[in-house]
Please model this.
Amino acid sequence: MKIQYLGTAAAEGWPGIFCNCESCKEARRLGGKNIRTRSQAVVDDRLLIDFPPDTYAHMLDYGLNMPAIRTLIVTHSHQDHWYPEELMLRRKGFAVDIAGTLDIYGNDAVGRSLEQFLKEVSETASNRPQVAFHELKEFCSYSADGYTVTPLKAAHNPLENCFIYIIEKDGKRLLYGNDTGEFPEETWEFMKGIRLDLASLDCTMQRLQMKTGHMGLANDVNVADRLRRIGCADENTKFILTHFSHNGGWLHEEMERQAAKYGFCVAYDGMTAEV
Ligand SMILES: [Zn+2]
Ligand SMILES: [Zn+2]
Ligand SMILES: [Zn+2]
Model:
């Protein structure tokens, strides 16, 4: 399995769209891996994870073949992960030779917002976007485009049932784990003994330790230790940190230096990892 990180920032991007903090000024000055767009990844160039406002930029910058994408899994309904307005363009008049239906998998909040959006579109347009929604329940496994996808409960927005995901194919397994604090106990319980080849973890707050919602490096160290203790990770498991906020304060190079102390890799926009 191959995962490509298309966007590795938190909600406002890095530099933040309206921000003048030192970390954003420095990112603007240095460019390169310090420029981070909103969170998105793609598995094997076909299974898209999350749908931020930067999806179009990812198509242009990384050759993401959006017209060919048929499967989208969504972690939660925050705008940096779920921007349904863009789906308006997946219909006749805006796209020619549409490659069938886009299957979207996510929680009830994502389903409700999509339904509301489609309702608004149908009031003014004669044809609907070619999309179908499939609501998922935590700790159940689903088949999506040949992948086994299992949503787990995240510790994120208490107002909705946010997911992190285990994604499996051909005996390989990865955890897509951002927009969560250290996991809820039910998630730990469920994960016992499920071996991961790759664990992708939230490091939004970098140098700051978080109680819940997101994580910093110290939280990632705790999560990696616990994953090892319960048989989910061993010396061959790759750990990759992503979803960074300028409020965390470490530009890419410093983030890499800090993460290397624990054997973690640091994602950047466009980075690919294989298991
Ligand atoms: Zn986010
Ligand atoms: Zn800033
Ligand atoms: Zn979020």
